[in-house]
Amino acid sequence: MIKVENLSKKYPDKNALDDISVTFPAEETTAIVGPSGSGKSTLLHSLNLLERPTSGRLIVDELDLNLDKTLTKAQVLDVRKHFGMVFQEKALFTHLTVLKNLTEGPTKVKKISQDQALEKAHALLKQFNMEELANRYPYQLSGGQQQRVAILRALAMEPQYLLLDEPTSALDPELEAQVLRVLRELAQKETSMIIVTHNMAFAQQVADKIVFIDNGHVGYDGKTEDFFNSNDPRIKQFLGAMTF
């Protein structure tokens, strides 16, 4: 379980997050949604301390951190060990094959053997029907294939939680569908995922929980079904704006 309490992130010109308290259950998919610039990605990045909150409390499983104080490098590393991260841009190692992209982290960071890393990488590629991509370089892949490899690279580190920041925003609808199928399969396996997304249809189908961020505040925190059936005027306005 991940929990933030009274989390704030202040910049000189605005409060990106203002006294937010949210729980993210393990073995569930939580979708963070909301209008552009509302603080969604800031919240996501605060969970693994890519963004350093100004104040608040962060609980990640057994770790309990007071964010009002300066964190040590060891504390930050302890938090990040729990997470795998997938960004909007694929950010693969361009000079390495797909297989090497999947084994680089486990061998260099987790210090597991090359044989173990290769076994895990091949298993992931087989699981998601991507074995034919093993020896290709990123430039030989479509955008959708690159993003799917980025997800597998994060999974190869065997994180407790997978964070995804609008992983399909740079893709056309056909390529987006390829990536969403992978995420749907992960959700069905009860992978612990937290996804920032603008795709409301995907969120409705896959997420166990919705966190709606609006202007740095939590506008909704609860079950997906209740969010999409809400009579709250602001939620109805937001969902209406997402429908053509």
Automatic annotation (TrEMBL):
Task: Note the superkingdom of the native organism.
Answer: Bacteria
What name does UniProt use for this protein? ATPase component (GlnQ)
Q: Which InterPro entries match?
A: AAA+_ATPase (IPR003593), ABC_ATPase_HisP-typ (IPR030679), ABC_transporter-like_ATP-bd (IPR003439), ABC_transporter-like_CS (IPR017871), MetN_ABC_transporter-like (IPR050086), P-loop_NTPase (IPR027417)
> Where, per UniProt, does this protein localize?
Cell membrane
**Keyword Transport recorded:** yes
Q: Per its UniProt record, what SUPFAM superfamilies does this chain match? A: P-loop containing nucleoside triphosphate hydrolases
* The entry's keywords: Amino-acid transport, ATP-binding, Cell membrane, Membrane, Nucleotide-binding, Transport
Q: Name the protein family.
A: Belongs to the ABC transporter superfamily.
Report the principal subcellular site. membrane
- CC annotations in GO: plasma membrane
Domain ABC transporter: where?
A: 2-240
A GO molecular function assigned to this protein is: ABC-type amino acid transporter activity
Classify the protein's membrane topology as the record does: Peripheral membrane protein
